[in-house]
Amino acid sequence: MTEKRTKVGGIVPESRLHELYRRPGFMIRRCHQIAVATFADECREFDLTTTQYGILYVLSKHRGIDQISLARLLGLDRSTTGMVVARLEERLLLRRAVDPADKRKRSLELTPAGEKLLARSQPVVRRAQERLFAPFTAEERETLIALLDRLIDIDESAGAEERDDEKTLVVAD
C-alpha cells in the first residue's frame, strides 16, 4: 500500500480514501475550511469572523433590516443570527431596536464603531480573497464563481429559500 500526502493534508492510504476526497460535498467543505482559515488569518487584528463580517457588510447596505431578513440574505438560521448579532451588539458594532411598525421585529443598524471597523477591514478582506484565489488565473476564477453560482441557483430554484429556518445552512461563528 503506497502512502502519500494528500491535498487534504496528513498521510493517508491513497486508494482507500480517494473516493471520499473526490466527492463534491467533501471538496466544497474543505474549500470552505480553507476560505474561513484564510479570512481568520488575515483578519486576526479585527477579531472578526466571516459570519460577523457578512452581517456587518449586509447592514452597511440595508440599514434598519430586521434579523430574519438578515438571516435569509446570509443563508443563516435564526438562532445563529441572533447569537452573532448579540456578540456584535456587545462589542458596540451594531444596535438593535424594536421596529415601531411591528413590535415583534428588531431592526438592526451599524454603529459608528461598526462602520469604522468595516471600512478598516475592507483592504484586509480583499487581501484574504486574493490569497484564496492566488492559485487561479482570472479566467479560472470567473469559471469557479460561475459554477458555484449555478449550484446555488439550482438549490434556490428548488425552493431552498422557503425551507424551515432550522434546516437552512448553519455557519458557525
**Helix count?**
7
CATH architecture of the domain at 47-124: Orthogonal Bundle
Enumerate the spans where pLDDT stays under 50 for 5 or more consecutive residues. Answer: 1-5, 164-173
Determine the oligomeric state from the structure.
single chain
Taken as a percent bin, the fraction of beta residues is 5-15%
What order do the helices and strands follow?
A: EEHHHHHEEHH
What's the alpha carbon Rg, rounded to whole Å? 19 Å
**How would a crystallographer describe the biggest sheet?**
2 strands, antiparallel
Distance between the termini: 40 Å
Report the CATH topology name of the domain at 47-124: Arc Repressor Mutant, subunit A
| Share of helix, binned | 55-70%
Topology, number of strands = 4
Short description:
The chain has about 170 residues and is an alpha+beta fold. It has 7 helices and 4 strands; from the N terminus they run E-E-H-H-H-H-H-E-E-H-H. About 60% of the residues lie in helices and about 10% in strands.
